[in-house]
Design brief:
The chain has about 575 residues and is of the alpha+beta class. It contains 19 helices and 29 strands. α11 crosses α13. The radius of gyration is 29 Å and the shape is globular. The protein binds one RNA strand of 74 nucleotides through β7, β8, α6, β17 and β21.
RNA sequence: GCCAGAAUAGUUCAGUGGCAGAACGAUCGCUUCGUAAGCGAUAAAUGUGGGUUCGAUUCCCGCUUCUGGCUCCA
């Protein structure tokens, strides 16, 4: 372990105390690992009775341990000593023994930590000096979950107990408060409150239905990106959502991706699959005619709806679904143009994120892990992968983007640049992706005629700026907590007449706003003005237009935005104001 | 898929082994109001299939769906 902050030491020490508390209650418990994580810590256990775990009770126990001011003592031990320590009959610690073996392989020294005189854990540390340094009110055990030993599904599943911990009670309370507030901006809650989308059990899990207001927003996203792509030389296409089995044999999806695909529809002896990706359809379009180097780079784009049979436990709102629409495109490029094309794509991403005022994102270079035979097993030509990885790396460097490398995160057909962000609760997610693919040309027999008159394989760039409309939409809703910028708002203006007496004037204003291309609605005057203002505010409608006798007399309107009272103005000026804001 | 928790009206929640309750929303009526909740009435629910029981929304089991993790992933 490298240098750690004091808070990390506290968190790690709390993990040890959690294990200690568990062992007191369940002497037969077997310990896995207990590291620190963002905001806290966890510890994995085996051989304990889940139904007997009571988190508040455990918390109490840990607080008692803290108050005993137990010392943390580090000791270096030989492998033999370590094995003996964790092989005490009758309750040996097999997981610790496995870890000792792993450490031996690395030839690193083995260290243990003693807490008080009862508890010993295999641990590199560092820790605080004694439990007295922990504020007993500064932590909270939060949840119980299952987790596979060493992160592999093939291993046994352990029981993981999570906790959050901070320097003091105040910071803990602030964190808990922040989480509670985050829930209010959760796209699932806002989606329900504002009537944006729904999911129906009868239709199927992970298959969202877009309601009128949600669709209004989505349509604007589509229009925005459609225009931008067209300006940047993309050609849009539309292709079917299903295809015959042979296509997916050829693409490698049935070999690598079958688990994530819906089972085939069998009809007239043919097997049709719902498509999990759009690439093969676009390759078919590429192949439709003979291509010349003059046509390249050829940029084929589609709002492509795909279906993936995601495992049931992973589905979540619009973030992880089984049917979604990608803002997809495939760029067929020559080797010479490849880097500049990737730079183009990177720049396009940058523009989009600027337009949406998205700042908290970072680039991840996702590379293959050749040890993972299942995913990258038929990769015979490592050189080609390296070539792809290097060109992505170079493009990132030359455009001055900082990035992190992630081994094993590549797609089965190539390395990629993923654009990562964090959700409300601090969880990492991909919102956009750029992939380099040297394989499809060969698999699909794609080619172009080069300057020299010879056939050559194109290199395919897969890219999705919005990732999927669904996820990007969710991300936007959460980022703005439902207060979308004016140009995206499904209802931009709500007109409130103070009483029915002003109804016809309100109607006239409504018509004129609509004619001006502004999304406006009129509220019925059956409720008090205050109530209608409140309702509109809760619906996150950017502008309210209020009309009473004063406005009629002066032929003006009274405007109120989410943030403040904009005062009285003429309709023309209001329309001008709105249009300027939308333009921006 | 696995681990843990949950499912009561359109929504958010309460409650009970013996007639299921509120708030908001909806509908209807009254009210016509100057910037975040006017008044009244009406309609509306125990996810689903089994079991235990005289009787189950409540207890038990299966399924479905949701939430949080793990693996996976746009």
């Amino acid at each position: 372990m490298t240098k750690q902050s004091n808070l990390e030491k506290i968190r790690h020490s709390l993990a040890h105390l959690l294990a200690m508390a568990i062992l007191e209650k369940f002497p037969k418990a077997q310990l896995g690992i207990g590291p620190t994580i963002e905001n806290g810590f966890y510890y994995d256990f085996d051989k304990i009775q889940t139904d007997q775990i009571n988190l508040p009770e455990l918390e109490k126990k840990i607080k008692e341990l803290i108050k005993q001011n137990l010392k943390f003592k580090k000791e270096s031990v030989s492998p033999a000593q370590a094995k003996k320590l964790f092989n005490k009959k009758p309750y040996a610690q097999p997981y610790k023994l496995e870890l000792i073996k792993d450490i031996q392989k690395t030839k690193k020294p083995i260290t243990i930590y003693k807490t008080g005189d009862k508890f010993i854990d295999l641990c590199a540390g560092p820790h605080i000096k004694s439990t007295g340094e922990i504020d007993p009110e500064s932590f909270k055990l939060t949840k119980i979950a299952g987790a596979y030993w060493k992160g592999s599904e093939k291993n046994s599943q352990l029981l993981r107990i999570y906790g959050v911990a901070f320097e003091n009670k105040k910071s803990l309370d602030e964190y808990l408060e922040k989480m509670a507030l985050a829930e209010r901006c959760d796209h699932r809650n806002i989606g329900e409150r504002l009537g944006l989308f729904m999911i129906d059990e009868q239709i199927g899990k992970g298959l969202p239905l877009w309601l009128p207001r949600g669709f209004a927003i989505r349509k604007k996203l589509e229009d925005y990106i459609f225009e931008l792509e067209r300006e940047n030389g993309y050609q849009h296409v539309l292709t079917p959502h299903i295809a015959k089995e042979d296509l997916y044999k050829k693409s490698g999806h049935l070999a690598h991706y079958k688990e994530d695909m819906y089972a085939p529809i069998i009809i007239d002896n043919d097997r049709y699959y719902l498509r999990p990706m759009n690439c093969p359809h676009h390759h078919s379009i590429y192949k439709h005619t003979k291509r010349s180097y003059r046509e390249l780079p050829l940029r084929i784009a589609e709002f492509g709806t795909v279906y993936r049979y995601e495992r049931s436990g992973v589905l979540s709102g619009l973030i992880r679904v089984r049917g979604f629409t990608q803002n997809d495109a495939h760029i067929y490029s020559t080797q010479e143009n490849l880097e500049s094309e990737i730079v183009n794509v990177l720049n396009l991403h940058k523009k989009v994120f600027e337009d949406f005022e998205i700042k908290d994102y970072w680039y991840r270079l996702s590379l293959p892990d050749f040890k993972n035979k299942e995913k990258f097993g038929d990769v015979k030509n490592k050189k080609i992968w390296d070539q792809g990885s290097n060109i992505l790396k170079k493009a990132l460097k030359n455009t001055g983007h900082k990035f992190v490398e992630a081994i094993g995160e590549a797609s089965f057909y190539g390395p990629k640049i993923d654009i990562q962000t964090k959700d409300l609760y601090g969880k990492e997610d991909t919102i956009a992706t750029i992939q380099v693919d040297y394989y499809s040309a060969q698999k699909f027999d794609l080619s172009y005629i080069g300057k020299d008159g010879k056939e050559k394989p194109p290199i395919v760039i897969h890219r999705a700026i919005f990732g999927s409309f669904d996820r990007f939409f969710a991300f936007l809703i959460e980022k703005t907590c439902g207060n979308l910028p004016l140009w995206l708002a499904p209802v931009q203006v709500k007109i409130l007449a103070i009483s029915e007496n002003q109804d016809s004037y309100a109607e006239k204003i409504l018509k004129e706003l609509k004619t001006a291309g502004i999304l406006a609605e009129k509220a019925t005057s059956n409720e008090t003005l205050s109530k209608r203002v409140r309702e509109a505010q809760m619906q996150k409608i950017p502008y309210l237009v209020i009309i009473g006798n004063n406005e009629i007399a002066s032929n003006t309107i009274s405007v109120r935005s989410v943030k403040n009272d904009e005062g009285v103005m003429t309709l023309e000026n209001f329309i001008k104001k709105i249009k300027t804001e939308i333009e921006k």
